[in-house]
Amino acid sequence: MSTSPAVGSPAVVHASPVAFDTVPHEPLTAALDRAASEHGARIAVDFLGATTTYRELADEVARAAGALLALGVQRGDRVAIALPNCTQHLVAFYAVLRIGGVVVEHNPTYSADELAHQLADSGASVALVWTKAVPAVLAARERTALRTVVAVDLVHDLPRHSRWALRLPVAKARRTAAAMRGPVPADVPLWHRLVHAAAPLPADHPTPTPEDVALLQYTGGTTGTPKAAVLTHHNLVANAEQGHLWTRHARGQEVVYGVLPFFHAFGLTLCLSYSVRIAATLVVLPSFDPALVLAAQRRRPGTFLPAVPPMLDRLVTAAAAAGVSLRSFSRAISGAMALPPATAQRWEQATGGLVVEGYGMTETSPVALGNPFDSSRRPGALGLPFPGTQARVVSQQDVTADVAPGEAGELLVRGPQVFTGYWNRPEETAGQLLADGWLRTGDVVRVDEDGFVLLVDRIKEMIVTGGFKVYPSQVEDHLRTMPGIADVAVVGVPGGDMGESVVAAVVVADGHDVDLAAVREWCGQRLARYAVPRRLVVLPDLPRSQVGKVLRRVVRDQVLASPAA
Question: Which positions fall inside the AMP-dependent synthetase/ligase domain (predicted)?
Fold first, then answer.
């Protein structure tokens, strides 16, 4: 059995195969200025057929920045954005940054209690809110420092003919309108009116510095109370530049599909930031709907798709059924969860392009590792360090000790995209960021002989039963191959003298029956005895986040609330 290197021995550092000289010394907003100057006539945004050029987008951002100034927003003020994907999400995002404000992204479908916690924690003074989310924000307002709530109507981003169609006295028009907008109290100002009436921000208005805070992005909701990661302009510029070096996309030529939620770190960087940095056309969809994606594909074929694995599977199935070609997509990047080799194969067969897996977390802006866009890509692996990024694998008991090559340990990363800490949480920051700049990811990995990082599981989700460590993902991977199981999540619950008991929560495929005895027999073929589930719970479906990640904490709560099986 191999042993870990002694404490104080030279660290085993894994570096990126792609050279990275330095991060451009500029704020994130500089990319929009550059795109408007060099590619002003190019379509920047296509929202359900309504198009905006880069010159028009920059002008709209200048007016929106003027509107924010008129609302009293000053440098360093936090501005909450609670919007679905839409053109005004981009406008608001860049307008806040341009005047030196700090964007605080929120899920617009959150309840009043969920929003109240985040709004109070950030200290946001102004909130730009989807009309349907206005009631929740107003209900939370008295528990926050909010002084102004502004309503944003998605309908104003639609093409003119679509806005006209929504006024038709027919049931379908009424249903669509009801899904896109909600009633707004008379004392809540409307964003489009404020922007239309505002004077553009003067060109000589001070720009933010690279060191300024750009974004408070909440994270940790799947494992505990959400906390805000503090990301600077430098962090976000670095990750966009790293992504450009990785993909080698040509500026002013790509069509990026914005199907990931912009309020999530993955969608924010790949769509709001990266697409503008390469002057791409961003095809914006309010939510992921295969029919909407295929309609957009007929209208404006995409070349690059950031997505999660279930999206790739659903698109391939829907495209085949509808007879729509996906061959224009030359590249796709998958994140938030493991990319099954079968999913990668389906996508590459349907598109003729490549799909690779990336890895990261909100604290790394978010991408830290990725698979190469070439024949060396390895479905199922997290990949190699991004340009300018270093990785280490250390003992789970002692983060100063590197593990032996090939052994499992906690992944540490260091690079210019690593956050500066958690908002107003110095103790949690100290526990996550080590003194020498290394970030503890909380993920257990190992590195193979070619330098590829392979995920074992999350430390916080590891199950300890009878003194043995069980990694849920390994049990799940095996159970997914069992006939009759459509989906599975494995969690640990209190197990008396054993510490924890392994429980499999499964979604059963149509026309099948699955019982505990069959599950235990299947697992016993490949897994250690202590890793075999001791209990089975059948659920109609698994709770997932907005980007499709299984919420194991919620699954555990459901298991604890269910009768023993």
Answer: 33-423
Q: How far apart are CA 463 and CA 491, in angstroms?
A: 7
Closest CA to 260 of 276, 241, 283: 283
Global confidence as pTM? 0.86
Strand order of the sheet with strand 14-15?
A: 14-15, 390-394, 409-414, 439-447, 453-458
Q: Where are the domains of the chain?
A: 71-204, 463-561
pLDDT tens for 42-100 read: 999 999 999 999 999 999 999 999 999 999 999 999 999 999 999 999 999 999 999 99
Note whether 71-204 and 463-561 share their fold: no
| Nearest to 368, CA basis, from 528, 501, 235 | 235
**Distance, CA of 59 to CA of 523 (rounded, Å):** 60
Q: Looking at residue 476, what DSSP letter applies?
A: H
The CATH class given to the 463-561 domain equals: alpha beta
Choose the weakest-confidence range: 116-125, 325-334, 456-465, 536-545.
Answer: 456-465
- Residue range 71-204 forms a domain whose CATH class is alpha beta
What DSSP string describes 238-291?
Answer: HHHHHHHHHH-PPTTT-EEEE-S-TTSHHHIIIIIIHHHHTT-EEEE-SS--HH
